UniProtKB/TrEMBL annotation:
Similarity comment: Belongs to the G-protein coupled receptor 2 family. Adhesion G-protein coupled receptor (ADGR) subfamily.
Name used for this protein in its record: Adhesion G protein-coupled receptor F5 isoform X5
Bilayer topology annotation: Multi-pass membrane protein
Stored Pfam families: 7tm_2, ADGRF3_N, GPS, Ig_3, SEA
Length: 1342
């Protein structure tokens, strides 16, 4: 071949043909003539010699032919490639040689002129043979060709070949999806389905991929779910995307269409030589890392993936991906990771995608964390002495530099010194007094040494240096100016964390109460924050924040300005609510107790009205004449008055509710109270009502009126006398005062004096009692310590309000369902817990207190006695020394006894007979974490009133209003006049009488337990026997629809009662007569017992309704499936609904179960009625049905003439219902009787007997009494020879008895079930359709 000097470009193509005749190629029919050079290359034919000889017509053979094509115009190259790519293979031969097909045409080599030379390069998938890869012939030294590609380009085309050849064998891992359902057999390579799929698919694959150059084999390796994903491997020499696409098309055409191959789902994974480089080699945390991926395949579709996280790397602030093609020969993709972290370590995949090909390469990178060692944190005195800070790197790395930085409020620089060989750096600094003045003492400066690598990694270590001098405080800089009712806070910050005390005081030196400020200590300082949520005028002034350390004080001051403004509770409005006729008007007003320069307006919705000022002594009122006819009527509206002070802050009064009405029905009229319709209820402040009072004395509280006829009647009077109202206002102000603990002693003294003075007025002002209790409740939260004098004033006040003259007022309070008695008791407990006084005794007629201090060493036992002669009551409290040893020294034990409080607290628990006994409260000043046992003895003035129970007042019961609870307490001993109790906790204790349940340790209770457990055992065995009998005779007794439904009911009754008995035993096992061992289990047991017992009754109801339906609706017939659906819905659906509603309504308040048993609560919620009411209703319904059935059969209607046999059947029908229903009803009738107070022990015994033996009743009266069951059992278990003998004499009209009357067994059965003669084994079938349902009804319970 001569040098192609006259050509600008040439290329070689490889042609694969298949022929069954002599090969005679005519390339001019394949290549456009216009594409060929007009002059043939001298001395060479464009086509090489034929590579095969002519043969006769055997099987087709394949030939490979190299063709050289030259162009003068380089643009023809791409046109030729495009033409060849668009050919559809195989190409059929022309008329001259029809037996020859062209299978594929591939471009292998392209030669381009470059300067004075011609460079020839291989196309994808081809390479120069090794003998042509001579260094002096390659293009290696020329720009544009990267290293490593020296054998892809040669200088000049080899004159005699060989040209670019296919690369060595490659294995392509491929997959394709079949749109058919995946079957598990495809996982088993030995299954027939697997082999069938494999054979068919491999055949299609071979036919399709045989066009690939160098194709050798294809193998199916597995099938995966996802429809069906076929994974297979193809071994070939080269596979360009274009050729692979054609091969895939051939596969799709060759495969059987039943496989539904998805032609767009072909995927190829291709591994070739890819250069993957990482910079730097040693990667430090924080470095900028570059990953370079180079591939000979030209494509810009390159993706990166982090294998460990499955994260596809995208361009972001930390990741940069840049892909480009170098010299149209190499694809290059660069991944740059900035500030790399440990999370970025792991394996990375560089994946290049070209058509269906994927070229991947992966490498793993390790990230090393930087460890820097440095000095510990230091404290440096500013004394001008040098101090050295040092830090070193744990690893040997050529660090580019080491930097020292500092961060802090003061600047104290130093001089660095770095030793690169050792990897250490030292920083020397010197601090003097000018650099850290006294005001900045305790300032911490952070010095940071930072090692920096060549690729940007930074490792640093902080060294905290605290420079100390004189302490300094900072306080909130902004001025504080607020109005009354608003909040403010002052923050005081110290730069010293060492202090002995932090407190706040006023400019007068009065300490602020501790509840108003909090103090926090930090490693390098401290802060104290004074917070006032509701400011009053008392907070106007200067406040000092004081940090004390030994005898050194650091003080900062802050001024607070509080502008006068009434608080919302101090604004009195009139009316609170009023009725105004549409054509009338009314004065409305709001009043305060001071005269200030306030701006006041009235506002209703978006409308506002002016206010007129009126001064009456100390009281200032703002009024407005409200005219109703100017407003749309009728309407309900809320009116407020807005009061604004000079600081432009405002407060809104409580609302005044005005009800505008037409006025025709107004009957009550009063100039003070107002007008109203009959039945109208309104409230007024007692201050503006017609309650008698001393002029100038502002009374408090609210009075409620009701319009009755034409007059206003007092419905509820909660007015507070003027002295008590003043004390209540002072108490509320005291709670907002900065020095409330200092003012508390004098206030408690005034409260005691005022209460004694007005005790006779409490009946006239019922609200005074509640006000005093509210005052005690508020004040009990103030003190951290109470001395004996303060406690004496407290108990003096309590003595007055617990006196007998005020008991009537207590009765009124209890009728209004308040919890004031519980509130009072809680207040006394809080005061007692704060008592800090030596052994002391306080005695009043209605309250006594005794206390003791626990001394260190071996404390003596605590024993106190209380005697109230006027009430004829006494009590003792004892705590032995073993219990007191666990208490801290100087702890206080306080006991307070009340003779009359029991009467007040008792009214919270109706339905009980209470012993006339003391209430004794015992409190320890410290929190007790270990078990604590206390013993008490109460005098019992009512020994015959019932069974005593030891109880304590539980403040958490009854929605936190309080109630008596026996948990943790039990009766130790009962004598003629006393009851001894023992409890494992401390609070307020007493005794009560509970006649509704026997004492757990009594003989009656033991007897009832024995009867219950023996009876339950019999019941469970009987129910199991009943179910067994039903299983044995089921086929014999359920031959018709009605009989089948009857036995379904009996089986479900027995099963439900069996489950109920089992859960009954479980409930008893998890309760110890005083409290449940597991509350959750107790709730579950109660639920299932409730549900199961209800199911028994509802299945009895189902049985009765079924009988009533079959008797009354004779001609109506319902399918068996519908009857079953109704039966199960009624038998289990209704009980489930009732049970769920019961537990849902009561358990959130923890009043679902009883305290002394796992059963429905009666005392608190009457939850037991959720069982009793449905049960009794069902009993009444079934008894009624029984009476109706008997009446109907004895006195039949016209056309209804039951035979003698039918009457007998009817009595058999009604036996089960007639017997079982009263038994079940009587059982729970006695059970309900035991709930009520004063029930006799006979009711307990009868209820226990009937309840325990219900299973036996079911077996006898519900199962064995059934004639058909008897016959089926006798036929089942009698000797076969007897049956065969007697069957011979059996006839349709009459029968011979199975057992004669002389048979002992027969006599027993007949006597047991009420028979006096023989009975028939079989009964004639009634064929009349009109009597079919009637007969079925008669046999419903047969």
């Amino acid at each position: 071949m001569k040098s192609p000097r006259r050509t600008t470009l040439c290329f070689m193509i490889i042609v694969i043909v298949s022929s069954q005749a002599t090969l005679n190629l005519n390339f001019e029919s394949i290549v456009y003539p216009s594409l060929l050079h007009e002059h043939e290359l001298a001395g060479e034919d464009p086509v090489r010699q034929k590579r095969a000889v002519a043969m006769s017509r055997p099987a087709a053979q394949e030939f490979t032919v190299d063709v050289e094509v030259s162009f003068e115009d380089a643009s023809f190259l791409e046109l030729s490639k495009a033409y060849l790519n668009n050919l559809s293979f195989p190409v059929q031969g022309d008329d001259t040689d029809p037996a020859t097909n062209i299978l594929s045409i591939e471009v292998t080599t392209v030669c381009r002129p470059t300067g004075n030379e011609t460079w020839c390069s291989c196309e994808k998938g081809y390479k120069w043979p090794q003998e042509r890869c001579l260094h002096n012939l390659t293009c290696q030294g020329h720009d544009g060709f990267p290293s490593g590609h020296h054998c892809s380009c040669l200088k000049g085309l080899p004159p005699k070949g060989p040209f670019c050849q296919l690369q060595g064998d490659i294995t392509l891992r491929m997959s394709v999806r079949l749109n058919v359902g995946f079957q598990e057999e495809l996982r088993n390579s030995s299954s027939a389905l697997y082999r069938s799929y494999k054979t068919d698919l491999e055949t299609a694959f071979r036919e399709g991929y045989s066009i690939l150059p160098g194709f050798k084999l294809v193998t199916v390796t597995e099938f995966r779910p996802g429809s069906v994903v076929v994974v297979y491997e193809v071994t070939t020499s080269a596979a360009s995307p274009e050729l692979m696409r054609r091969a895939n098309e051939q596969v799709t055409q060759n495969i059987n269409q039943t496989y539904k191959m998805d032609s767009s789902s072909f995927q190829v994974t291709y591994s070739n030589e890819t250069k993957f480089s990482i910079t730097p080699e040693i990667i430090l945390e924080g470095d900028t890392v570059t990953l370079m991926c180079e591939n000979e395949v030209l494509s810009s579709n390159v993706s990166w993936q982090h294998v460990e996280t499955g994260f596809d790397v995208q361009n972001s602030s930390r990741f940069s991906v840049y892909t480009y093609v170098l010299n149209n020969m190499t694809s290059v993709s660069r991944l740059t990771i900035y500030n790399i972290t440990q999370d970025d370590a792991g394996e990375y995949i560089c994946k290049l995608t070209l058509d269906i090909f994927e070229y991947g390469s992966r490498k793993k990178i390790d990230v090393t964390s930087i460890q820097i060692l440095a000095n510990e944190d230091m404290k440096v005195m500013c004394d001008n002495n040098p101090v050295s800070l040092s830090c070193c790197s744990e690893m040997t790395v050529n660090w580019s530099q080491v930097e020292w930085k500092q961060e802090g409020t003061i600047n104290i620089p130093g001089s660095p010194e770095t030793d690169t060989d050792s990897g250490c750096s030292r920083y020397t600094l010197t601090a003097d007094g000018t650099q850290c003045p006294s005001g900045l003492s305790g300032t911490t400066v952070v010095y940071t040494c930072e090692f920096i690598s060549a690729h940007g990694a930074r490792g640093s270590k902080d060294i905290k240096v605290t420079f100390t001098s004189v302490a300094n405080l900072k306080i909130t800089p902004d001025p504080i100016s607020v109005s009354e009712g608003q909040s403010f806070s002052i923050k005081c910050i110290s730069d010293v964390s060492n202090y002995d005390e932090v407190y706040w005081n006023t400019s007068a030196g009065i300490k602020i109460y501790k509840r108003f400020y909090t103090t926090r200590r930090y490693p390098n300082g401290a802060e104290s924050v004074l917070t006032v949520k509701t400011s009053t005028r008392e907070w106007n002034g200067t406040y000092h924040c004081i940090f004390r350390y030994k005898n050194s004080y650091s003080v900062m001051a802050k001024d607070v300005t509080v502008h006068p403004l009434p608080l919302e509770p101090d604004i009195m409005v009139d009316p609170l609510e009023a009725v105004i006729p549409c054509t009338s008007s009314r004065h409305i007003k709001c009043c305060i107790e001071e005269d200030r320069d306030y701006k006041v307006i009235f506002q209703a919705g978006s409308s506002s009205f002016p206010a007129a000022k009126e001064v009456n002594g100390k009281q200032v009122c703002y009024k407005h004449h409200f005219v109703a006819n100017s407003i749309s009527c009728p309407e309900n509206m809320d009116v407020f008055c807005h009061i604004t002070n000079t600081a432009n802050n405002s407060v809104r009064s409580p609302s005044m509710k005005l009800n505008l009405v037409p006025g025709e029905n107004v009957t009550c009229q009063d100039p003070i109270i107002g007008v109203g319709e009959p039945g109208k209820v309104i409230q007024k402040l007692c201050q503006f009502s017609n309650v008698p009072r001393i002029p100038g004395s502002p009374i408090g509280g609210i009075i409620t009126y009701r319009c009755v006829g034409s007059q206003w009647k007092v419905k509820k009077n909660n007015c507070i006398s003027a002295p008590i109202n003043t004390l209540l206002q002072l108490a509320e102000a005291l709670m907002k005062s900065p020095s409330q603990d200092a003012k508390l002693p004098s206030y408690l003294k005034n409260l005691s004096i005022s209460t004694n003075q007005v005790k006779l007025e409490v009946n006239s002002f019922p609200g005074s009692l509640g006000a005093i209790i509210n005052i005690l409740d508020l004040l009990s939260t103030v003190p951290t310590q109470v001395n004996s004098e303060m406690m004496m004033h407290v108990l003096s006040t309590v003595n007055v309000i617990l006196g007998k003259p005020i008991l009537n007022t207590w009765m009124t309070s209890q009728q209004q369902k308040t919890n004031q008695s519980s509130q009072l008791l809680h207040s006394v407990e809080r005061f007692s817990r704060a008592l800090r006084s030596e052994d002391s005794t306080i005695s009043q007629p209605n309250v006594q207190m005794k206390s003791m201090v626990i001394k260190s060493g071996h404390p003596k036992s605590y024993a106190q006695s209380f005697v109230f002669l006027d009430s004829d009551l006494w009590g003792n409290v004892t705590i032995n020394e073993c219990q007191l040893e666990h208490l801290q020294p100087d702890s206080f034990i306080v006991t307070v006894a009340f003779p009359t409080l029991k009467t007040i607290l008792a009214q919270d628990v109706p339905g009980k007979t209470f012993a006339n006994s003391l209430v004794m409260t015992t409190i320890v000043s410290q929190n007790i974490t270990t078990p604590f046992r206390i013993s008490m003895t109460f005098k019992n003035n009512n020994p015959s009133g019932g069974v005593p129970r030891c109880v304590f007042w539980n403040f958490n019961l009854a929605n936190h209003t309080g109630g008596w609870d026996s948990s943790g307490c039990y009766v130790k001993e009962v004598t003629e006049d006393s009851v001894s109790c023992s409890c494992d906790h401390l609070t307020s204790f007493s005794i009560l009488m509970s006649p509704d349940s026997p004492d757990p340790d009594s003989l009656l209770k033991i007897l009832l337990d024995i009867i219950s457990y023996i009876g339950l055992c019999f019941s469970i065995l009987s129910l199991a026997a009943c179910l067994a009998v039903e299983a044995v005779v089921w086929k014999s007794v359920t031959k018709n629809r009605t009989s089948s439904m009857r036995h379904i009911c009996i089986v479900n009754i027995a099963a439900s009662l069996l489950v109920a008995d089992v859960w009954f035993i479980v409930a008893a096992a998890i309760h110890n007569y005083r409290y449940p061992l597991n509350q959750t289990a107790c709730v579950a047991a109660t639920f299932f017992v409730h549900f199961s017992y209800l199911s028994v009754f509802f299945w009895m109801l189902t049985l009765g309704l079924m009988l009533f339906y079959r008797l009354v609706f004779i001609l109506h017939d319902t399918s068996k499936s519908i009857q079953k659906a109704i039966a199960f819905s009624l038998g289990y659906g209704c009980p489930l609904v009732i049970s769920v509603i019961t537990v849902g309504a009561t358990q959130p308040r923890e009043v679902y179960t009883r305290k002394n048993a796992c059963w429905l609560n009666w005392e608190d919620t009457k939850a037991l009625l959720a069982f009793v009411i449905p049960a009794l209703i069902i009993v009444v319904v079934n008894v009624t049905i029984t009476v109706v059935v008997i009446t109907k059969i004895l006195r039949p209607s016209i056309g209804d003439k039951p035979s003698k046999q039918e009457k007998s059947s009817l009595f058999q029908i009604t036996k089960s219902i007639g017997v079982l229903t009263p038994l079940l009803g009587l059982t729970w009738g006695f059970g309900l009787a035991t709930v009520f107070q004063g029930s006799n022990a006979v009711f307990h015994i009868v209820f226990t007997l009937l309840n325990a033996f219900q299973g036996l009743f079911i077996l006898l009266f519900g199962c064995l009494w059934d004639q058909k069951v008897q016959e089926a059992l006798l036929n089942k278990f009698s000797l076969s020879r007897w049956s065969s003998q007697h069957s011979k004499s059996t006839s349709l009209g009459s029968s011979t008895p199975v057992f004669s009357m002389s048979s002992p067994i027969s006599r027993r059965f007949n006597n047991l079930f009420g028979k006096t003669g023989t009975y028939n084994v079989s009964t004639p079938e009634i064929t009349s359709s009109s009597l079919e349902n009637t007969s079925s009804a008669y046999s419903l319970l047969n």
